[in-house]
Amino acid sequence: MCDLMAVELEFSARESGRIVDRLSSEPTLSHLDFLKSIDFENVNIRTELDGEDNEKINFLFDNIGKTDTSSMLNLLEAFRQNMNQSRKRYDEYYKSHAKLYVMFGIFGGFAITLVLI
User: Fold this and answer.
1) According to the model, what pLDDT value does residue 105 have?
2) Distance CA 110, CA 40 (A)
3) pTM of the model
4) Residue-wise DSSP of 28-84
5) Residue 31: pLDDT band by 50, 70, 90 thresholds?
6) What is the DSSP letter of 25?
7) Which of 24, 59, 70, 114 could crosslink 35 through cysteines, CB 3.0-4.6 Å?
């Protein structure tokens, strides 16, 4: 998403609504439902991410198109780096908890088998 936003901003500093319209029509971003119904007067985006990450997304879309192009590109790069760190945090959480859930499943299956025998 950041890459496409950067391309739009570098090519022409369009208004924020046109940039989001371009993003919402991109097939690779079709899973981002909030792009289709964003209200720039009252940005309140909720995703499956935690509250802190939702605040960062809201900040990005609240400030898009309000400054010059170079500042917007800097904001996009900072957002991208921050989201990469969040992704690493989510990946670590998933890896640590996935093994735990598999073990619970295996031992739960053994317990049910013993009870039914």
Assistant:
1) 92
2) 54
3) 0.69
4) GGTT-GGGTS--TTS-----SS-HHHHHHHHHHHHHTTSS-HHHHHHHHHHHHHHHH
5) confident
6) T
7) 24
